[in-house]
Amino acid sequence: MTATPVRHSPFYTLEDAKISFNIFCCFCGIGSLSMPSNYARAGPIYATIALLLMAFVNIYATIALSKVINAAPPSVKTFTDVGAWVFGTTGRYAVMLSQLLVCLLLPCAFLVLGSMLLDVLFPDAFSQIFWMIFMAVTVIPVCLIPTLKEASSVALVGCLGTIIADVVGVSILEWEMRGHPSIPTPDVSLHQV
């Protein structure tokens, strides 16, 4: 009798890399670029507490969803399937409605927030309406990608762009802060968090 050879699967595949890019963009994307503003508004203590609370809630939700999907039958593959499996037809429609609202309102928020940010970064260069149209034109190719699997190349570019933007931003800040007096203590209240 001959022994059957044991096949070892690779530890880290291309699919794992694609997922890693998407997770990195979720974790360090727009959030890392807005962290200095959050810390300036809320102060180091409240901002760190809020950051840790949001991290805990997101990690808990991810683990809970993973457990639900592991316990679900093989026919459950999407968020709407999970909603239908757990809460029936009402759950399917509730999940579908929340996903549709996210898909419709999030681009609107990015258009408005992006145009406001670009208007502040480049004052008197163009109007806020121009920046909003510019953001819409640059986002259109991303909106045409049907799934996250195909968007992994965009996620890779987003990863690199985020890292470069963070390094450049911190470097400029450190360079410009030479000889500057220490920062004043923020006037913090709980509603700013």
Written account of the structure:
This protein has 5 helices and no strands. The protein has helices at 14-28, 30-71, 79-121, 128-143, 152-176. The mean pLDDT is 79. It is globular, with a radius of gyration of 22 Å. The termini are far apart. Helix content is 73%, strand content 0%. With 193 residues, it is mostly helical. Among the domains are: 40-71; 78-144, no CATH class; 147-175. This is Amino acid transporter transmembrane domain-containing protein. Keywords: Membrane, Transmembrane, Transmembrane helix. It is a multi-pass membrane protein.
- Category by helix and strand content: mainly alpha
Structural Rg:
22 Å
Q: What's the overall average pLDDT, rounded?
A: 79
Number of helices: 5
Largest sheet: none
Provide the succession of SSEs.
Answer: HHHHH
Distance between the termini: 69 Å
Shape summary: globular
- Count of strand segments: 0
Approximate helicity band: over 70%
Which band does the percent of strand residues land in? under 5%
Query: Unreliable runs, pLDDT <50, ≥5 residues?
Result: none
